[in-house]
Structures are given as C-alpha cells and as structure tokens.
TrEMBL record:
<protein>
    <submittedName>
        <fullName>Cellulase family glycosylhydrolase</fullName>
    </submittedName>
</protein>
<dbReference type="InterPro" id="IPR001547">
    <property type="entry name" value="Glyco_hydro_5"/>
</dbReference>
<feature type="domain" description="Glycoside hydrolase family 5">
    <location>
        <begin position="66"/>
        <end position="336"/>
    </location>
</feature>
<comment type="similarity">
    <text>Belongs to the glycosyl hydrolase 5 (cellulase A) family.</text>
</comment>
<keyword id="KW-0378">Hydrolase</keyword>
<dbReference type="Pfam" id="PF00150">
    <property type="entry name" value="Cellulase"/>
</dbReference>
<feature type="signal peptide">
    <location>
        <begin position="1"/>
        <end position="24"/>
    </location>
</feature>
<dbReference type="InterPro" id="IPR017853">
    <property type="entry name" value="GH"/>
</dbReference>
<keyword id="KW-0732">Signal</keyword>
<keyword id="KW-0326">Glycosidase</keyword>
C-alpha cells in the first residue's frame, strides 16, 4: 500500500512538473504585454529641445492639442540600418529633410536590420532620430517594414522575415521606450500586408483585424498618446474591408500605398483615377484619418523602375489633388539614391523628377 502511494505520488509530481514546464515553454513564445522588457528604459524627455504638441484623432481628422487640423506632408528615408552601413545616418540628413519642407519623416525598420544591429543598438539610433526630428520640429512615423502575411508568417523576401512573437515584442519595446514622446506621432503596425497575389492562400480580414487589435492593445498599455496606423491588403492598397468591419479600437488611422499602377483605368483621365482610388481606399477618408505613407513614381527607363511605380509623371499632380480634396496626409517614397523610386539621385541631394515635384509640394504654404 505504501509502495503504491509512493509510486502514485511520484507519478503525480511528474505530471505537475511536465505541465508547468509546458506552460512555461508556451508563455516564453509570446511577449508578456503587461510587463516591460526587463532591460528597457524610457526615452529621456530632457533630450527634446522643442515643445511639440501631441497629435491625436478626432473624427476623420488628425488634430493638435488646440484642436487644429493637422495635415502631414513628409518623406520616407531608408532604413537607419542601411544608412548606418553607408555612413549616411546623421543630423545633416534631418536638416536636409527639413529644408525640403517635410513636417513628418517615416522610418522604415526592417526586421532584418532590427536583428542585425540588435535591439539596444538600434534603439540608440532611434533616440538620435527623435532628438534630431524634434530639433527641426518634425514628427516621426515608426514603421515595422515587412511585406507579406504576418498571420501565416510568409514573406516576399528574407529581409522582411519576422514572426508574430517578434512583431509583438518590437511594439512592446518601442511603445514602452517612447511613451509620452510627442515627436513620435504614429506607429505603422505592419508595412504591406499581402497574400502575394494568392500564393499563400487568401488573406483573411477577420484574422488580420484581430492581430492588429492585439498589437494596438500592446501599444496602448504603454502609450495611449500615439496613433496606431493600420494597412489594408494588396500591399497596403485596399481598404474596402473596413467599410463593414473596421478595426475595433479608438484613436487609430489607416494607411494606403496608392502607387500609380495600382489603379488601372480604362481611360487615362484624372476623373477615372479619382473614381478608382475612391472605390478602393479614398472612401475611408470620410470616416477616418488617412495617411498615404508611400506614394511616388519613376519613368519606365528610370532607376529601379518596377511595377507598380512606373509612370510618366502625370501621377504626381493627380494624387496630390486627390488627397488635398479629401484632407489626406501623405509621405513620399523615398529620400534615398539607392532605393526606388528615388527622390534624390546622389548624396548631394540632387532631386530626381519626382524629387523636384514633391519638394515643390512640400515647400508650399
């Protein structure tokens, strides 16, 4: 009897140990969104030289603390990791962005560079970006720059490879580090969701919506004073699902990347483009703030010409007029001589065709 009890006790103890170990392994696969990373610290507000107002969502508009409508007009730069490799990451770059008239800068953070530099080193450089942008009274968008379908963890290229765990941990670290920093206005949750034209099955909006809401919850636990930015499908072009099933969280905005070849008009007229854009993404501006975080073009024989950015230049005035009529903010791609469509042709900041156009638009009062 005593022997059986001892065996029974040993068996029960083994089961409990196994169960506890299994729970620990499962929990280790996901970030604890109720706690900060043990080696995280907060950005010191003493590094900010200008007092900037927090930007928030009111209806379908972005507003400052005085309730005034804010339209962002800005520029994308290359990944800070890429710029560091080329010795181009500097305050001088931000001075030039300011000279072009940008009031917001988008920082595309690729998972590949985030891992390559390492979290702590990358954050040191993001700290510099916050400090420099603030000195020139510019705002920032931090963009988790992956292309693919996060729920299935399938991506367009290895530089975009990430996981749900890494994405959640990234936003947990970033939102804790920069909580209550007005210079960072927007967190773009995922750059371009796509099922790669059906190559990974069909993207599911309910699935994508749920995951974005989980990311927003992580961010809001640390920082409710930032605007989460949600992308639609087809490489962040198509927002039609939100007409019936919007993201169920307050204070958010949506993004679209309406490159010229995304719309395929039967007649090459302005009104035809406007109708197509309205149908797929522009309609959303009636209810929600929209920030088109990537726009731009290059001629067919230009550097890095590829679908969907090829255009003769007529796209520029059309997309700007479309967005002006609807109060849509925008960020042109990309202030870099290597990545296409380029805004500059060299590191002397010589404007390309689209660079000339967007610089003029940015400098308009």
């Amino acid at each position: 009897m005593h022997i059986k009890r001892r065996y029974l006790f040993t068996f029960v103890l083994f089961v409990l140990m196994f169960h506890t170990s299994a729970i620990a392994n499962v929990n280790s696969a996901y970030p604890n969104t109720n706690e900060k990373n043990p080696d995280s610290t907060q950005f010191s507000l003493s590094r900010l030289s200008n007092k900037q107002q927090f930007i928030s969502v009111k209806g379908n508009k972005l507003v400052n603390e005085l309730g005034q409508n804010i339209i962002f007009k800005g520029l994308n730069i290359a990944d800070p990791g890429k710029l560091l490799e080329q010795n181009k990451w500097s305050k001088a770059l931000f001075a030039e962005l300011n000279a072009w008239g940008a009031n917001i800068i988008r920082l595309p953070i690729h998972p590949m560079y985030w891992r390559k530099l390492g979290r702590q080193k990358y954050i040191q450089h993001l700290d510099d970006a916050v400090t420099w942008a603030n000195q020139y009274n510019m705002y920032l968008i931090i963009d988790w720059h992956s292309i693919g379908y996060l729920p299935k963890e399938i991506y367009q290229h290895k530089m975009y490879d990430t996981t749900i765990h890494e994405t959640k941990a990234f936003w947990q670290d970033i939102s804790y580090r920069y909580q209550n920093v007005p210079t960072i206005a927007v967190y773009e949750l995922f750059n371009e969701p796509t099922d790669l034209a059906g190559k990974v099955g069909k993207a599911n909006w309910a699935e994508w919506k749920k995951l974005n809401e989980e990311l927003i919850d992580i961010i809001y636990r640390h920082d409710p004073n930032v605007i989460p930015l949600v992308a639609g499908f087809n490489w962040a072009y198509d927002l039609r699902p939100i007409a019936d099933n919007p993201i169920d969280r307050p204070g958010i905005a949506y993004t679209s990347h309406p490159y010229p070849q995304k719309a395929k008009p039967t007649i090459n007229s302005k009104q035809n483009y406007f109708d197509l854009w309205d149908e797929v993404w522009g309609f959303a501006a009636k209810k929600y703030p929209i920030i088109a975080t990537e726009i731009g073009w290059v001629k067919a024989d230009g550097k890095g010409a590829h679908i969907p950015v090829i255009n003769d230049g007529s796209y520029g005035p059309q997309i700007i007029e479309f967005m002006q009529q609807r109060g849509i903010s925008w960020v042109a791609w990309v202030f870099d001589p290597d990545w296409s469509p380029t805004m500059i042709s060299d590191w002397q900041f010589t404007p390309t065709q689209q660079g000339v156009f967007f610089k003029q638009e940015l400098l308009k009062k």
